[in-house]
Automatic annotation (TrEMBL):
UniProt cross-references to InterPro entries, sorted A to Z: Fe-S_cluster_assembly_SufBD, SUF_FeS_clus_asmbl_SufBD_core, SUF_FeS_clus_asmbl_SufBD_sf, SUF_FeS_clus_asmbl_SufD, SufBD_N
Family: Belongs to the iron-sulfur cluster assembly SufBD family.
Cited SUPFAM superfamilies: Stabilizer of iron transporter SufD
Protein name listed in UniProt: Fe-S cluster assembly protein SufD
A GO biological process held by the record: iron-sulfur cluster assembly
Spans traversing the lipid bilayer: none
Organism of this sequence: Deinococcus indicus
Domain SUF system FeS cluster assembly SufBD N-terminal: 12-185
Positions of the SUF system FeS cluster assembly SufBD core domain: 192-422
Source organism, top-level taxon: Bacteria
Length: 450
């Protein structure tokens, strides 16, 4: 506690933010590290010595792309983002500016630390509003005219509280009413100090009838004993459209824990894609809170775990208003001695009639030593709904494999073709060509190592 208090004292900011950080740190001290006895963490254990954690080192700004890590250079070549930030640990080391026409329309895209200084009114209004430090209780933000109830406890409190207290930077996006940002905006996060931790926060706000795409990528070399903790808050106002893409490709030895949550208002749409490929242990939570009538949420994900990687995904499709639609498709591959975990909940509040919700999780097992745990769930409190969920875990289709081999294709090549096709089902629903190409490249490397 003393060590974290010292670190908190070094973080500058306005009094309202400092007070929130202190409150979050005090909460952190009262919470236990989640254990297997907690249902949401039944198959995942995070071994962390908080006393031994030290913050990621500071980094200087660079003026040339060639000074960035090779992985970032390769990613930025030919990408179609309109503007981007590059963060190395806690610091923005490189950035490009928004086009002048977007700035003139009131669009804001900067790092969160700068946003606190230059756009304090907007940051204070929305920061911590969607992903609070404490374990979420949706009774505080229930939709008008509905009966609120408490969400399932994902037990992320310990890590969320730490991230809320000690986040050092992140991205801030604000799109005013009626403005459409055609090209995606992006944040590329890297780490370069082994045995450290970094805490980041992303806040995206789309006002009424606004539209924006945000790409959040993480990449590093192997970094034993390193922790990446974060939170993503997506505020989607009436009739707005937000597309959020998270691509996690940390190096071996990194533990990744991140909570992503969208607050979706009336007739608004949130499309999310979560890609998990790197790190040794990854726990990612994606929640859509459909609080407005006619709101819409598409939740996509794919992952490929090999060696001893452990990937855990927790999802929540929370319908708090009538006539809302949500569709979830998560697909993963487990190879070697890896572990995959999926726990998904469709929750429909009393009064959320005409809900239309789907949840599908499919896993392809390439090794008898790999394990996969899938827990799809429904909690329905309305009587006029259409909700379904399903989960399948299976090895490579032997008939399809036989078909390919009978046409002269070697077994190894045939298996790689089937794995690629299995995951392409998700990518086919993503209209971002450069992002899809990048993900396909990561998949090809993973398949090649299979």
């Amino acid at each position: 506690m003393t060590k974290f208090n010292d670190q908190l004292a070094q973080v500058q900011g306005p009094e309202w933010l400092t007070a929130k950080r202190r409150e979050s740190l005090e909460l952190f001290t009262t919470l236990e590290v989640p254990q297997e006895s907690v249902e949401a963490w039944k198959y995942t254990r995070v071994d962390v010595d908080f006393d031994a954690l030290r913050p990621h080192g500071k980094r200087d700004v660079v003026t040339d792309v060639s000074a960035l890590p090779r992985s970032v250079q390769d990613r930025l070549t030919g990408t179609d983002v309109g503007a981007f930030l590059v963060l190395d640990g806690p610091d923005v080391v490189y950035r490009t500016e928004l086009p002048a026409e977007l700035t003139a329309k009131g669009v804001i895209f900067t790092d969160l630390k700068t946003a606190v200084e230059q756009h304090a009114d907007k940051v204070q209004q929305y920061l911590y509003s969607v992903v609070p430090a404490e374990v979420p209780d949706d009774t505080t933000i229930a939709a008008p005219g509905t009966t609120p109830s408490k969400s399932p406890d994902p037990s992320e409190g310990k890590f969320s509280a730490l991230a809320a207290a000690l986040w050092t930077n992140g991205a801030f996006v604000y799109v005013p009413r009626g403005v459409e940002v055609e090209l995606p905006l992006g944040s590329f996060r890297v780490m370069s100090d082994a045995g450290t931790y970094t805490a980041t926060r992303t806040l995206v706000v789309a006002e009424e009838n606004a539209q924006v795409t945000f790409i959040d990528e993480q990449d590093s070399e192997a970094l034993p004993g390193t922790y990446a903790i974060g939170a993503v808050e997506l505020v989607v106002k009436d009739a707005a459209r937000v597309r959020y893409v998270s691509i996690q490709n940390w190096g071996e030895g990194v533990t990744h824990i991140q909570r992503q949550r969208g607050d979706v208002a009336r007739d608004a749409t949130l499309n999310s894609l979560v890609v998990t490929m790197g790190g040794t242990l990854s726990r990612t939570e994606m929640q859509s809170y459909l609080r407005g009538q006619g709101s819409n949420s598409e939740m996509l994900a794919l992952y490929f775990a090999n060696k001893d990687q452990h990937f855990d995904h927790y999802t929540l499709q929370h319908h708090a208003a009538p006539n809302a639609y949500s569709d979830l498709l998560y697909k993963g591959v487990n190879n070697d001695a890896s572990v995959g975990v999926f726990s998904g909940m469709i929750k429909v509040d009393l009064g959320a009639q005409k809900t239309d919700a789907y949840q599908k999780h499919r896993t392809l097992m390439l090794s008898s030593d790999a394990r996969n745990f899938s827990v799809p769930q429904l909690e329905i409190n309305a009587n006029d709904v259409r909700c379904s969920h399903g989960s399948t875990t299976s090895p490579v289709d032997q008939e399809a494999l036989f078909f390919l081999r009978s046409r002269g294709i070697a077994r190894e090549v045939a298996e790689k073709m089937l794995v690629t096709a299995f995951l392409e089902d998700v990518l086919g629903r993503v209209p971002l060509k450069s992002v899809v190409k990048y993900i396909e490249g990561i998949i090809a490397k993973k398949v090649g190592a299979a």
